[in-house]
Amino acid sequence: MTASLLDLAGVGRTVTVRGTPVTVTGISARGLAALFSRFPDLVGAVTGGGLDLTSLVTTGPDVAAAVLAAGTGHPGDERAEAVAASLSLSDQLALLEGIAHETFGGGGVEDFAKRLAAAAASVGVSAGAAEAA
What we know:
Order of helices and strands: EEHHHHHHH
Radius of gyration: 16 Å
Largest sheet: 2 strands, antiparallel
Strand order of the largest sheet: 1-2
Number of helices: 7
Shape: globular
């Protein structure tokens, strides 16, 4: 039997944190755009430019909390971000790993970026043209 697009809503993977199973999902293009708008330094981390140490120290905890909230079905929810910020670094990392896998696939950000560039090229958009836009 074939599934429809609507059957995919809410599908993700389970990550166990503090003995509690938590469903994590991928962050959509709309969700990533909202995060990039709120945290411009995050663009470099996702596109391979990395984060400098100052950005990591000053915005890293807020970015992590926002990503955790978004990846657990609560994008932009201040309460979810506060809970995410209170988790241990180890628990945050476990959730981030699941969210990253669901968002970018098993090949990670690098493979995703290559696939995205190939898809753009297939419709006649070059990386230079996309950057100039």
